[in-house]
Write a structure and sequence with these properties.
The protein has a single domain, classed as Glycoside hydrolase/deacetylase (TIM Barrel). It is built from eight helices and twelve strands. The strands form two sheets. Strands 1, 2, 5, 6, 7, 8, 9, 10, 11 and 12 form a ten-stranded mixed β-sheet that branches. Strands 3-4 form a two-stranded antiparallel ribbon. The radius of gyration is 17 Å and the shape is globular. The N and C termini lie close together (12 Å).
Length: 246
């Protein structure tokens, strides 16, 4: 079986529509389709996806061509004190201080935001079965809550979790964070450390953020590495397709 390459574009929101278009064109140029598009439905509590018909049309076109929509938080913004296990709290404080939304919410608010986010997507004729918390960070309640609400999977940084039966698919990664220099360099160091694991993995994750992507040498390096992976026979698949694979 060909190695699965889970290509994803994160932080799809009105604020970065042009950068997202650029990424999609670059991915088209190397044959990286289908892909998973991680959509923020109410970015920062101000930018409702329903008020951006241009982006909605772009997403509908992507879905028509085989890509999938993934709910990516609700506001993508921290909402309170950190919650979760000590490692989650430390990662949130160090690497996702302003964005780890689902590591800063109590259970009832998580539930409300999942429902509200899915409702916004549905109003745009965009359906989803998956969820990726901002920063890949969440409390222990989230997997069970997703299953209760009818979601199929949860995206974590190193794995894809089927919340219906707790099956976990490991997904060693490489990617572009779109963050300030130090954070970006730490991410690239992490990707280099994961290279031996990626080389023998059945499936890998390649993620791209739109922030600063068109002008970033790091983003172009990641796109080049993705192109090489596809040339070697890697098969682009969505998260939903990967979960459906026996």
């Amino acid at each position: 079986m060909k190695r699965q390459v889970l290509v994803s574009v994160h932080d799809v929101a009105p604020a970065w529509i042009e950068e997202t278009r650029w990424l999609l064109r670059e991915l088209d140029a190397i044959g990286a389709r289908p892909r998973s598009l991680l959509v923020i439905p109410y970015h920062n509590g101000h930018h409702d996806l329903r008020n951006c018909p241009e982006l909605v049309a772009l997403l509908q076109e992507e879905v028509a061509n085989g890509s999938e929509i993934v709910l990516h938080g609700y506001t993508h913004a921290r909402a309170g004190r950190w919650r979760g296990d000590p490692l989650t709290v430390a990662r949130a404080a160090l690497f996702a201080r302003e964005v780890a939304e689902f590591a800063s919410l109590e259970w009832p608010e998580q539930r409300a935001r999942l429902l509200a986010g899915r409702e916004i997507l549905s109003a745009c004729d965009l359906e989803t079965v998956g969820f990726c918390p901002p920063g890949w960070l969440h409390t222990t309640e989230l997997p069970g809550l997703l299953a209760e609400l009818g979601f199929a999977y949860l995206v974590e940084m190193l794995s894809l979790v089927d919340v219906r039966d707790q099956r976990r698919l490991v997904t060693p990664w490489m990617g572009f964070m779109g963050t300030p220099w130090l954070h970006e360099q730490l991410a690239q160091l992490g990707a280099r450390l994961l290279a031996p694991w990626r080389a023998r993995a059945q499936r890998i994750s390649v993620f791209l953020h739109p922030q600063g992507a068109p002008d970033s040498p790091v983003c172009r390096q990641v796109l080049h590495a993705l192109a090489r992976e596809l040339e070697r026979g890697g098969k682009p698949v969505t998260y939903a397709a990967a979960i459906a694979t026996p």
